[in-house]
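Database export, one record per block. Field names are fixed; values are copied verbatim from the stored entry.
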Amino acid sequence: MTRIGAIFNPYTHSPEEFLPGVRAAERAGVEEVWIWEDCFRTSGFAAAAAALASTERLRIGIGIAPMPLRNVALTAMEIATLERLFPGRLLPGLGHGVLDWMGQVHARVASPLTLMREYLPALRGLLAGDEVSTEGRYVSLDAVRLDYPPATVPRVYAAAEGPKTLRLAGAVADGVVLDSKHTVDEVAHAVAAVREGRRESGRGGEPDVVAYVVAAFGADAESRVRTDLSEISDPLERAVHGDPARVAEGVARFAAAGVDDVVLLPLSRQDPAEFSAATAEVARLIAAV
């Protein structure tokens, strides 16, 4: 069954609005809230910890935190600690990071694909409780093992955009996060590339595909989508909009393209409680089909 989540947008809401927002999401019946770590706004892991401690059932996705900013052992410690404290509720995601931002902090790597290829297998090994030794271009570990690995290893997601990264993410991650503003057909091509990468890796199983989808609710939803996506072509094909029933129809099209988890993104500033209530209604409609 397709999962439905919502995004807390750090561009339209301040950190002080975050905890009231996630509490409102849980009250409304939303199952997942996703956050991201864009430089230089808010910390993904600090926000996730606060949200998990402030709610009881809500899953929190980090989609994504930039790999170049963190040693892989530190990332493993962060994920393992949160997973042990709040079992089954963290959905951690990593990515290249915006290259310009990584350059600003002198963390930009020459080959982001090599970094992902080295980083994610090492991270997954550490979370599995393995002793990991590796000597790579960017990731080097000498007999590192977590003292407190999680009892159940969470899925590790990777953000991916281009064909090479999509295939690599399918090969080395447990799931993939697709960015917003894509049409259903574009998402379907991305899903195919992710699955191809998994098949080529020989790992077996299917990667979990998360897609951010721009959403607007209400009578003026169409006009807000046109405004929010005015810089790109075919804006109405790159968003879902209208009342919850119409949004659910749009979500179903993304699900049919192979998306396992459709996460709704408000681009304009909207009341978080109202957006959560509408998102929860979309999830109920999808579940009833």
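Remark 1: The chain has a mean pLDDT of 97.
Remark 2: The two ends are 10 Å apart (CA to CA).
End of record.
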